[in-house]
Amino acid sequence: MHPGINGPKYKDKPAVIMAGSGDVITHQELNELSNQGAQLFRSLGLKPGDSLAFMMENHKLFFPIAFAAYRSGLKYTAISWRLQASEVEYIIKDCGAKVFITSKFLEESAQSLANSLEGVHKYMLDGITDDFKSYEKEIDNMLKTPIEDECQGAAMLYSSGTTGKPKGVSREVNLSPLPYKADEDDLGLTRVVQGLYSADEDSIYLSPAPLYHSAPMGFNTGFLALGATSIILEKFDPEAALAAIEKYKITHSQWVPTMFIRFLKSDHEIINKYDLSSHRIAIHAAAPCPVEVKEKMIDWWGPIIHEYYAGTEFNGFVACNSEQWLSHKGTVGQSLLGPIHILDDDQNEVPIGDEGTIYFEGPTANGFSYHNDKEKTKGATSKQGYTTLGDIGYLDEEAFLYLTDRKAFMIISGGVNIYPKETEDTLIMHPKVADVAVFGVPNEEMGEEVKAVVQPEDTSLAGDDLEAELMAYCREHISHVKCPKSIDFREELPRHPTGKLYKRLLKDEYWKS
Question: Which domains are assigned to the chain?
Answer without folding.
Answer: 3-14+25-188 (3.40.50.12780), 316-409 (2.30.38.10), 411-512 (3.30.300.30)
